[in-house]
Amino acid sequence: MQALWLENKQLQYRTDLPIPKPLHGEALVRVELAGICATDLELVKGYYPYTGILGHEFVGKIVEAPERIGERVVGEINVTCGKCETCLRKIPSHCKHRTVLGIHNRHGAFAEYLCLPLKNLLPVPATIPNETAVFTEPLAAALEIQAQIKINPTDHVLIVGAGRLGQLIAQTIVLTGCHLQVIARYEKQRQLLAKNKIASFDEKSIQTHTFDIVIEATGSQEGFKIARKAVRPRGTIILKSTYKGEMLINFSTLVVDEITLLGSRCGAFAPALRLLEKKLIKPQMLIDDCFPLDKALQAFERAQQQGVFKVLISP
Hints:
By secondary structure, the protein is α/β, with parallel strands linked by helices. It has helices at residues 38-45, 85-88, 130-133, 136-148, 164-173, 187-195, 221-230, 251-256, 269-277, 296-303; strands at 3-7, 10-14, 26-36, 52-53, 57-64, 72-75, 78-79, 99-100, 113-117, 121-123, 156-160, 179-183, 199-201, 211-216, 231-239, 260-263, 287-292, 310-314.
């Protein structure tokens, strides 16, 4: 089997890996399309120790499973035990024994095949093409913000960062009718936002202590500083990034201004699929390139280039 393998912060294209064998309750899925995201790029840099096949954004077809063969699916990436304290409290994404597709103790989607439990696999409506369905996982992550905090039409909301995830977050937040603005560093980012009638501006034009909710989606110390500068007293900063290493934060000012910090990670797939089916979200405009699996190393080089949005891999 062909696959993209990560080990000791080195990527390798390999053709010698066995096709995985599904365990009881799992399905074997043939990957049709997979997307490179910021987490994949950070894993290569070593933000979290991982050895194995990368990739967690995918759409594919079930080729081995009871009664579901041929079904086109996307897959929730957290594989949980269902028995630990957090699972029983109905927060399975924090399962103490979880594996995570292409991130933690489970081979991922940059391969010809992958395995996931049947309960993790959701059917893709026929009206959603692969090029749209492959965005289900990051769109679900974007929607998790609204599962965690209510955004009212009267709220002033700022998104710091207009990259891959920032663009999807913007498309979901604008549906709330709030006063939304996005800090976008590059002209291409501003053009994509404008197509969705979303206001954007340069970080130099930021208004201090103005916004009720600030969503930080850059994954950088600089992005957090901007978010802290923008949020009003008793406002909320939502951290929608994977940060490498430690960050220097002045906690005294957070206490004095009574700022709420909210981490946000994975989300449910079903709401994301409904938005895609209704065409309320338009992720296809984020696709910059697509590479065959045997050119996956070049795909990563492309994804690392400044200003590039989504790069796809097609096994």
